[in-house]
Amino acid sequence: MKAVALTHYLPISNPESLLDVELPDPKPQGRDLLVRVHAVSVNPVDVKVRSPKDKTESPPRVLGWDASGVVEAVGPDVKLFKRGDAVYYAGSILRPGCDSELHLVDERIVGHKPKSLDDAQAAALPLTALTAHEALFDRCAIDPGGQNASRSLLIINGAGGVGSIAIQFAKLAGLRVIATASRPESQEWCREMGADHVISHREDIPKQLKDVGHPEVDYLFNTVDTVAYWNVMCDVIKPRGRMVSIVEAGQPVDLGRLMGKSVSFSWELMFTRSRFQTQDMEEQHRILNQVGQWMDSGRLKTTLTEKLSPISAANLRAAHARLESGKMMGKLVLEGWR
Known about the structure:
The protein has two domains: 2-125 and 273-335, Alpha-Beta Complex (Quinone Oxidoreductase, Chain A, domain 1), CATH 3.90.180; 131-267, 3-Layer(aba) Sandwich (Rossmann fold), CATH 3.40.50. 28% of the residues lie in helices and 28% in strands. The chain has helices at residues 44-50, 119-123, 126-139, 161-172, 184-193, 205-211, 230-236, 272-276, 283-296, 313-324; strands spanning 2-9, 19-22, 32-41, 53-62, 67-74, 86-89, 102-106, 110-112, 152-156, 176-180, 197-199, 217-222, 237-245, 264-267, 304-308, 331-335. Strands 3, 5, 6, 7, 8, 15 and 16 form a seven-stranded mixed β-sheet that branches. The chain has a six-stranded parallel β-sheet with strand order 11-10-9-12-13-14, sandwiched between helices. Strands 2-1-4 form a three-stranded antiparallel β-sheet, with helices on one face. Helix 3 packs across helix 4 and helix 3 (126-139) packs across helix 9.
């Protein structure tokens, strides 16, 4: 099968950083689905994993954790899918990625592709939708049915892939959403996603929150930099509020600042369920099916903003470079094989 992979961890400007390769076709075992991949998306995790380090891979390592395609074959223990089903998923960080024509994935973390979306639109969703869904509805305990309606949520970096879908989930739950974005075009994108207010994370956040009538917020979702915004987060969260971040801290943060307000802080990592084979691993199957239903009913809109074709090393290098520029809005997808 065709695939895009790496043997050395190099700067993306190096033409050897990602390579077109031929690999053996994988065979499904257990609860595996063998998926013929039609489209893939790129995420910050791809850039992080590929970042330069003194290490080599043999056989070549395939990256990629967002895919849409069709089930080609199933393992002997599969219960949820059959050959020919259209699917979308993010996959597991512990297994080869989806930047390949054929890909193995555990059925428990796979959803039925939304019928209203094409492959490119569907491939833009899984990792970010799972991350935002778990962050808001599990970690922050927000009720998607509206029991927390009218409460406030601040999303730091609302224009990225996770922020774009998180805004929509929060509005679906009836929250008042304040998103941060630093450029006119990214601020407009946040408004298109449904944000009630958009402020700049490069300016005084507490002052801007006061100006829009929300000096403190009930919930806070940091999608860009935990350490840089920690003190601001502690300042603007309400007593007994909930905060969640998806960005690891490169240095210690002062958790003691949260005690006086009895604030809860959580980490969210979409790969946790598959990494540890948790008992509720199949919950990601349910989440993706729910997101698909919301998409098909018109309650959500696609976050796809850019598309490249075909899926190739050159185009994936270009996609990684776009992510590294820090100016991506929404999601970038690659579709089709040459």
